[in-house]
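Table S2 (continued). Query chain:
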Amino acid sequence: MTDVEYSPAVCQTILNEIISLLSLFEENMSISSRLDDILLSQHLSGNAGLNNFLSTCCYGRTGVSVSLHDFNSICILPRTDWRCRLVLKDPSFPQLLSVSPSLLEKEDRDQHIVQKFTYTKNTLLLVLQDVIHVHPRKTFIRLYLPPELPIAWSLAILGLKNQASNFTPPSVHIIRERITVSIDKAIIKKDLNTRFRLFCKESGSFWLLDDDGVGIQQVYLTACSDFPHILQEHLLEKNSTLDKLAGVFPSRRHPEVEAIVRDAFSRAESKGLESKDMLLTDGSLGGTVFAMHNSGFVSVEWLAAYLVDTDNNYFMTDVRALAMNGKERLLRIFSTNHTYNDPTWLQFGETKFAHLYLSQRATVAEESWLKISSYITNLLIGLINQRLNVLASGRYHLGPVIYDVGVVTLGNPSVSGIGPHSDGKNGLVCASTPGYGRFQMNVVTLGVQNHCAGSSNISWWLKEDHKKSKLAEFVHDFFIIHCQTMGVQESFLHEVHCLISCDYTSPIIHSLIRHILFICSTDINHYQGLGRPETLFEF
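Corresponding output:
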């Protein structure tokens, strides 16, 4: 065999093919010749290059002895869902030592899967020790290395919120990258603040954002907390409304509907803007929600035109909500990019109960609301950028958003409420992609109903709080715009709940509009690690 120069890229290519064939090994024995005779015999046989291959796969460099047990635990088993491992083919002849695949017995496999997090945590420890060993400040790091690796730090490195077995561990080279980035940034922050812990949840999350230790998440949270007051001052200073400031002007007036809207504004129970900072269990800020109630935020002319323009929209039955929870509501997906041959489609629910819904073309009124919600979020982005500019000298910048898709639900609140959930679902967020985790979500919601009494509310509580102790609550009456800013989807759950018994001659119509910013590009690296705040819908 010709010796191979085992660079990290070459090893990763070989390893990926080995693992892909191992995943087929149980189902298709015909691949055994390629797997056994070529890949395993050439790269895992007892030759001089064997240890270089193992070491480069595990640690990204040569020179570290790696046992077959460690190679299985770190590289093979996690990536094949613990179905296959590699075993010694003929240990009696070390000079001809080679390996072959072996299926795990069900008992062994079940045990491995149950202990998945433990195995992955052990992998983190091995990689961490190697990162420290080659780090120029290894002595400094070891001074603050705790006797046992903190669970919170491990979960943060893995991009997990809770300890769970139903996850796919990242590849070793990704784990190494995350640990290296997080350690380097933690050292920077430790040098600035001696009380900062090198190994904690915050430091384990440093790989998510390219912030050079600036603490961008804290910048986000503080800016979001200050934003409601700044938004209100902005409207007062401009002496205008959100629709006009967003450049939205109805093409047609509806005096009779305007009179109804004006009367509803005057009789509505809730007025003005209210905001609430929600704290985590350690007392730190976790996220901010705020609501704008009734008059003063949008013009009577715009809201009247919006109601008229959306009065005859096409809806579909929300079959998923009906089948799973008995909820009776109608659903509409609208998109500014919709065409007959190429509609937008959205996935609702997790993998097991997923439904796909197709869009309709957005109406003029719906496009106007997209512009208003974009205006609100871009004001927040502008505030964040101002503070990033001061702290990071202009190195980091969030780009503006242009929302182009929305979701509308329509129904009687007594039978169409939305149960406990967060808006961060798989496919809309990706914890391993910088800037696109749950933390970055910014949710803007418009609610309109056909009477002035408070009929339902939306409330939030900590995810781990099974008692659902409310940290924030807003009542929906005639008109509301409420916003869930960054951090809320990461740490809190919310629900929409009916407050009164709705037994009217005509049903109470409660329209909640949800908006989503799609990741349109297949290459999201051009966001340079910061990404853009994503606006998601409730489902």
